[in-house]
Amino acid sequence: MALAALAAAACAGPPQEVGRYDPLNPGQPRVEERTPVRNFEALIGARQLEDDEAWDPLDDQFEVGLGFQIPLLGERSEARLDLADYVDWDFGIRYAFDQSDVSGVSVGQPDRELDAETWDASIGLLVTPGAEEAWIRPYVGVGAALLYTDVEFLGPTGFGRDSSTLFTAYARGGVRFRFRQGQYFGIDARWLFGDDGDVDGLDASAEALSVAFLFGARF
């Protein structure tokens, strides 16, 4: 999934120019140039769970994701920009996992492979100030996320397994670097916090910090 998204971002062309008025051909209809206002991006990085002791040895998780942003107020006017024109709806889905081999909890028990998986769907608002043509554009955002976690863990009384669904809030920030028209890469940091309940069987919080590289396209 991540490789397909990266290929789509890399192959995406510049924004389409559907036509301009040509004074030498006045009979041709005038069609305005489209301005790219939507972002599609792929992310790859790592998620560090804050509750290290409870999650150990599954607290360092590999993470991949997809993101999509659209303007908060619809199409933007190049003639007049205000603060709302720099605010986007921020949609995302991420998948994080980790695996680890551990010894049995008592003599004679076999070694076990522990694993943890988390699906993370989110919606929020993202603020990206600066001109559209800028080569460097920082951003910040906040929102809510729904997490589904499935984990096989080692507890004080032995091995166990648990699945939990949690609601959390998130804050994220980063910077995008445009390397050609309509395409960019960047660095993203995202913090999950304020989960309503713990992962029950593990008695652990789902709070986490993610750091990822992102590759995106504007259209």
Secondary structure layout:
Elements: H1 2-11, E1 39-49, H2 52-55, E2 60-71, E3 87-102, E4 112-127, E5 136-155, E6 158-180, E7 183-193, E8 208-218
Antiparallel strand pairs: 1-2, 1-8, 2-3, 3-4, 4-5, 5-6, 6-7, 7-8
Key words describing this protein structure:
single chain; 219 residues; 8-stranded antiparallel beta barrel; 8 strands
Question: How would you explain this protein's 3D organization?
Answer:
With 219 residues, this protein is mainly β. Helices cover 6% and strands 55% of the residues. It contains two helices and eight strands, in the order H-E-H-E-E-E-E-E-E-E. It has helices at residues 2-11, 52-55, and strands at residues 39-49, 60-71, 87-102, 112-127, 136-155, 158-180, 183-193, 208-218. The protein has an eight-stranded antiparallel β-barrel. Strand 4 (112-127) and strand 5 form a beta hairpin. The model is unreliable at 5-21 (pLDDT under 50).
